[in-house]
Write a structure and sequence with these properties.
Layout (H helix, E strand, L loop, with lengths): L6 H22 L2 H4 L1 H17 L6 H41 L6 H36 L5 H15 L5 H96 L16 E2 L11 E2 L5 H14 L5
Antiparallel strand pairs: 1-2
Helix pairs in contact: 1-4, 3-4, 5-7, 6-7, 7-8
């Protein structure tokens, strides 16, 4: 049973097929393979030269000519073999390409879109976590020293120095200062931990961004693949419709000419085929396309074909 490929695997496989066919075409157009006819003439000349040396007394000249002839024959044989192999492989690859599943389903696009959204959600979540960690750093940066408490302690120590009993009040102030300093220490530790956490989170975010870019690239590739597949179908329909339009136009031009000729000019032409600029162009210049320009058409030629058609139908002309 043939393995089922997902969308990106199909895209990759098709590109490999197209690239291989292009490489084969390039090789077939190389000088060495495209000039086998010239090589064939060279072989004929070498054979004639070799035959002309049969009566020569010197065997050295014949040996040199024989070597040259054998080399050319081998080049020809190798070139023909390589060309035949390339043509065979090209046909096989073309058949594979024709059998290839070019479709990208809407379900596959939705699935890939969901992957992209999930990856973007991961980045967004990491951004929120990083911002939360930065709040600890900002809190530590905004902490000021216990200026008021220190001033109160200084005043109490001054009172104590003058003989006042401020022991309990001093103990209370010192406890508050210690609590404040402990709180500042905790904020500093939290800020330090936050900085380290942010470093790790930013590395994870960088990896998550790579996933987002990869998922977005895959989605773009799938959309391009789908659009190009639909484009090929639409283009084929366009060419078919264009050819039909060209055929209909030529019939109109032919009948218009017959009306003018049969009426000896009494009936006015409803269509001037050489003046109307109906134009259908092969926009991709491929082998299946064509170029039709009404200005280049010859109504007399198509009128002659129309006479034959009318005669076959039994119309006396």
């Amino acid at each position: 049973m043939q393995e089922t490929l997902n969308a990106m695997e199909r895209i990759t496989q098709k590109r490999q097929l197209v690239a291989r066919i292009a490489a084969i075409e390039t090789r077939l157009s190389d000088h060495q393979l495209s000039n086998l006819t010239t090589l064939s003439r060279g072989i004929a000349d070498a054979k004639n030269h070799l035959d002309s040396l049969v009566t020569e007394k010197s065997g050295a000249q014949r040996d040199v000519a024989q070597v040259r002839y054998d080399e050319l024959v081998k080049q020809m044989r190798d070139g023909q073999q390589e060309r035949d192999n390339l043509l065979k492989e090209r046909d096989q690859r073309q058949q594979e390409l024709e059998r290839f599943d070019h479709s990208i389903t809407l379900a596959e696009i939705k699935e890939q879109t969901a992957k992209l959204l999930a990856a973007e959600g991961t980045v967004s979540s990491l951004d929120s976590t990083i911002e939360y960690q930065r709040s600890f750093i900002m809190a530590a940066d905004n902490v000021s020293g216990p200026t008021d408490l220190l001033r109160q302690k200084e005043d109490l120590l001054a009172d104590a120095a003058t003989g006042k009993n401020v022991a309990k009040r001093l103990e209370t102030i010192e406890a508050k200062i210690k609590e404040y300093e402990q709180s500042c220490s905790e904020l500093t530790n939290q800020a330090r931990n936050a900085e380290q956490a942010i470093a790790g989170l930013e590395r994870r975010r960088a990896e998550a961004e790579k996933v987002v870019r990869a998922e977005r690239t895959d989605l773009d590739e799938m959309l391009i693949f789908r659009f190009k597949s639909e484009l090929q179908t639409a283009y084929s329909d366009f060419i078919t419709a264009g050819k039909l339009l060209a055929e209909r136009f030529r019939r109109v031009a032919a009948l218009d000419t017959l009306v003018a000729e049969t009426s000896h000019g009494r009936e006015k032409s409803i269509l001037n085929a050489t003046a109307n600029a109906y134009r259908i162009l092969d926009i991709t210049k491929n082998a299946d396309g064509f170029i039709f320009d009404a200005r280049d058409e010859n109504p007399t030629q198509w009128a002659a074909l129309e006479r034959e058609r009318q005669t076959v139908a039994g119309v006396p002309l």
